[in-house]
Amino acid sequence: MKARSLKSGSWLLVIFLTTDPKIVECELKIVIKDPKSTKKTWAMNDSETTRLSRLIALLTLLQTKRTVTATELANRFLVSTRTIYRDIRTLESAGIPIVTQEGKGYSMLEGYRLPPVMFTRQEAIALLTAEKLACRLTDVATAQLSGAAMDKLRAALRHSDRDHLETVGPYIHVMEPASASDRPDTYQQLITAVTANRVVRIGYLAAETGEPTVREIEPIGLYLSQHWHVVAYCRLRQAFRNFRLDRISTLDVSGELFSVRTETLQQYWISEAGKNNKEKVVIRFNPSMISNAQVQHLHDTKHQYGWAYEQILPDESMEILFFVGSLPYLATWLLPFAGAISIVEPMSLRGHLAELAQQAYDSFVKNESQTGRKN
């Protein structure tokens, strides 16, 4: 920052956005003629200060996106496209090499970079939260990379903000079992495979039977619900499949490349939602018959099992609708709520529950009583 007196008696304040004044500078002209009018003069410059903040944000955005349109920028900063055109011209006149692509938008000249703009305290806390989520919800490799990135952020902070981050850190927790940190590095390897279009060979445990199978997959993306999943084209099944990362026993990213597919995660979900091969299940649930902890567990986990809709009945019980691909799989989840649920449809679900209940009885009651008589 520097200031110099003008012949008119006003002052010209120049604020540099980078450490190199040859790269870009923005000027705010503050006119002070009468001490009594100082407050009014500063109020007049509020709009200029707002524009300076917008120019800084605009520079950052141009470095983070390959191409961005004037309409997108206008929506982002809540200004008109005419204002964006004016801001772009200001940056260009300051020496920023902005490339205008007809019909596509604006981009920064390839290879041109500015030193990073200082993070705000709120932005630093948001990134600290992201680091904690990555450490608990991904794999070891990603957690280490996230920690390294966070160290670079801390190095760029002012001492006061760095101290504040250390103070806030212990108050932010992500409650995930400690075993999560022992997961193999499947997440990072699969991200690499997605971006490089590489075929992945996995050992996978089937959800219903637990039987191990070997698959060659062409991954198109990952998502997190209650567990991490990778969506991929399965060469064994000749169709897209959804694989849970915690069921992957072995993983090898091969050197084989697969042709880029047009399918996206969004298209996969739309396709899955449009399938009619899922079976309708209706149950009645009486929460008064089990503990509050069990009721909470049901509501916390129901979305994993095809929950679609629920309604409260006059007797304060609930009727819950599911669409499921496997009745035995749903039965394993419903069994612990025995006494609080009744099956409305399909009746075949009762058979699956009865079979599981018989297995539990034989294992924990019948066999124990026989052992006791022998002793």
Characterization of this structure:
The protein has 375 residues and is α+β, with helices and mostly antiparallel strands. It folds into four domains: 2-108, Winged helix-like DNA-binding domain superfamily/Winged helix DNA-binding domain (Arc Repressor Mutant, subunit A, Orthogonal Bundle); 121-181; 184-273, SH3 type barrels (Roll), CATH 2.30.30; 279-364, Alpha-Beta Plaits, CATH 3.30.70.240. It has helices spanning 38-44, 46-64, 70-77, 81-93, 121-137, 140-156, 159-168, 186-196, 265-274, 292-301, 327-334, 348-374; strands at residues 2-5, 11-16, 25-30, 98-101, 105-108, 198-205, 212-224, 228-234, 239-244, 248-257, 279-285, 307-312, 318-324, 341-345. Helix 5 (121-137) runs antiparallel to helix 6. It is elongated and about 85 Å long.
Comma- or semicolon-separated keywords:
alpha+beta; 375 residues; SH3 type barrels; Arc Repressor Mutant, subunit A; 4 domains
Short description:
By secondary structure, this protein is α+β, with helices and mostly antiparallel strands. 42% of the residues lie in helices and 25% in strands. Helix 11 packs across helix 12 (348-374).
Mean pLDDT: 79
Low-confidence runs of at least 5 consecutive residues: 1-44
Shape: elongated
**CATH hierarchy, class of the largest domain:** Mainly Alpha
Here the CATH topology of the largest domain equals Arc Repressor Mutant, subunit A
Order of helices and strands: EEEHHHHEEHHHHEEEEEHEHEEHEH
Strand pairing plus helix content: what structural class? alpha+beta
Strand content: 15-25%
| Relevant CATH superfamily of the largest domain | Winged helix-like DNA-binding domain superfamily/Winged helix DNA-binding domain
Number of strands: 14
* Beginning-to-end CA distance, first to last residue: 89 Å
Q: How many helices in DSSP terms? A: 12
Share of residues in helices: 40-55%
Largest sheet: 5 strands, antiparallel
Structural domain count: 4
- The side-by-side strand order for the widest beta sheet comes to 9-8-7-6-10
CATH architecture annotation of the largest domain: Orthogonal Bundle
Q: Compute the CA-based radius of gyration.
A: 30 Å
